[in-house]
Structure formats: structure tokens, C-alpha cells
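Re: the multi-chain job from yesterday

Posting the exact lines I submitted so nobody has to dig through the queue logs.
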Amino acid sequence: MPPTVADVSRLLRVLAEHDVRFIVVGGVCAVIHGAPVSTFDLDIVPERSDENAARLLSALASVDAVHRDLAGRSIAPDASRLRGPGHNLFMTRSGPLDILGTIGRGRDFAELESRSRTIDLGDGLAVRVLDLDALIEVKREVAREKDLATLPILVRTLAERRRRGD
Amino acid sequence: MAYNPRVIDPEPLHESVDFSDDGVDLTLIRWMLSLTPAERLRVLESNARSLETLRGAADRR
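And the result, C-alpha cells for all chains:
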């Protein structure tokens, strides 16, 4: 039975080892920036080139990724879908991994890259993470209940970081 | 033992807990910001594992 919470460090390391170009977004992004929120999956926005999709497909195979499917079917990742703008929700040996072609109002890797930075997560692992102000913008664009619920925490975290001169 | 009002009647909590106007616990934010990004990630993973353990224990009851 697969784990129901993500081993985030393991998933990030697998992606990095396969030279996948991606940006960490969502709850893990918020936590890395210091927001006291919880999450059970890892959300990333990958670069959508053919080469990167191939690397991503290889990384997904190494953690036995299959689409999370309500009907219980075991659907393997597909390169053409990984190049698309949609959301691909996977279960892996290291827990849930969501691969999002675009987020918010259709923002993709190319648009978000300039609003992200590489952050050292220790043990030789460094990954590109969306900036906190950009994450807040995206959450406002999406405006689902679950996104709006965490917005005050993100906004206060950003204010506290700015107050500290971070 | 002599009566010590500082022990019996500690400072009211509202003087030491720091919430924003919209109810966000600023002490948690400051604590998280005192950690490195790597440490924050470990906090997240540890919390998720703890919750999973608790949920498993509850399911077995």
C-alpha cells in the first residue's frame, strides 16, 4: 500500500537526480518560505519541453508513479500529458506528487521562473521554489476555499519576512 | 511553602500570545522563520508522519 503522505525530500531528490527543471509551488513552497501550514503532497510546475518531459517521465518511473484515479485504475504517466497545461495527480512510492502544467491564470514554468529562486535544502539538495509573493498572487487568482483559508497565514508570513528584512 | 502569587497566578496568556487582527498566530511564524529552509521541510515531514501515525491508531480502534 502506498504512503498517504509525501516523503517530500525523497521526491525532490529524485527529481533533481533526473535533472528535471521544475518549480516547487503550493504548501511545500509555503513551508519552505516559513509559513506554518501543513500539506500532504508535493506540487510542482515543470518546464514543458520535450526533453524535460522525458526526464520527468524517467523520474516518475523510478518511483512507480501512477495517476491517482477515483475508479482505482492504474494509469501510467504519459509524456504528452506532462507537456500539457493540465494537472497530473500521481501516487508514487514516496507519496502523492502533483505535476501542474500551469497554475493560477494559466501561469507556466516560463512565466514563473523569474518569480522563483533556488533554495538550499541541505545534504546537497537545492531546488527552485516560487517566491512567496507570487504564491500569494496565484492563490488569489485561484480563490478556491482551501486556498483562501491559508491566505492570511501566507500574507502575515510575507509581512514578517519583510519586517525582518529577508 | 510560602504562597507565591507569581506561581499560582501566572501572567495572563493574552499578554504573551501574539495574534494578528485576523487571528494568525505570529509566534508560529516567527518560530518557523527562525529555522533554515531545510529545517522547515523537516518540520513539515515530521508533522505529516505524526498525523499519519495518529490517524492509523485511530483507524485501528
